[in-house]
């Protein structure tokens, strides 16, 4: 675990810089190319290019074969690497990218039943544009997916009472302490939500929420890169520390490395590894 935590910290120290595509383009380019160089250790990196207002942007994709090389429907594991302006984005979404980089290494060495597409998405903060472009590409090609997993803010933990907020009505059903990792999914992903909770909960407190078919009844459940996959008809879930419902540094310049709970982040990563390794 100490080695895992040290690796996650190493990734964070590299990518926790301002990386807004317009207002911190040098940092944005550095983070993108750092991710590319890490992915390239484990295979060919595919660049999925898309255009926004005449500007070209890139999603980076590493494909990992299944352990028996059978052509099953793949699992996408994604995290966005852009930030809002004026923010180094330690939790949003440096924490998600750090786990993405660790999973790329682990799954390349320890492949699972399903082929994997590790994807670093751009332009999430401008309306989920990178994941929207990729989900529509897959839909247009009539490609099937086993599951899409969005890693969205995984490193903030607050063990104080009443540190956790919720959309209206949910506070009666879930704990008021912000020390758990959340799993948010559509109705078709309920078996997967239960599966991942089963493997996360022995390591880190974990709660799951079925957010309807596309999360439309609870709009705050749609604020990450899983939502375009819901809209395209795919099974998708988000792994999250619940963002602004817990983290007071959300979209602020104070979202810095020292605010993260590295032990919590490490436990989340370990639990996800266990869940992926045992996925049926």
Please name the defining characteristics of this protein.
280 residues, alpha/beta, Aminopeptidase, 7 helices, globular
Q: Which radius of gyration do the C-alpha atoms yield?
A: 17 Å
The biggest beta sheet, please?
A: 8 strands, mixed
Helix-residue proportion? 25-40%
Question: Overall pLDDT, averaged?
Answer: 97
With strands numbered from the N-terminus, the spatial order across the biggest sheet is: 1-2-4-3-5-8-6-7
Q: Overview of this structure, please?
A:
It is a single chain. The chain has 280 residues and is an alpha/beta fold. It has a single domain, classed as Aminopeptidase. The protein is built from seven helices and eight strands. It has an eight-stranded mixed beta sheet with strand order 1-2-4-3-5-8-6-7, with helices on both faces. β1 and β2 (55-64) form a beta hairpin. α1 (2-15) crosses α3 (90-109), α1 packs across α7 and α3 (90-109) runs parallel beside α7. The model has no long low-confidence stretch (mean pLDDT 97).
Entry summary:
The chain has 280 residues and is α/β, with parallel strands linked by helices. The protein has 7 helices and 8 strands, in the order ααβββαβαββαβαβα. It starts with a helix and ends with a helix.
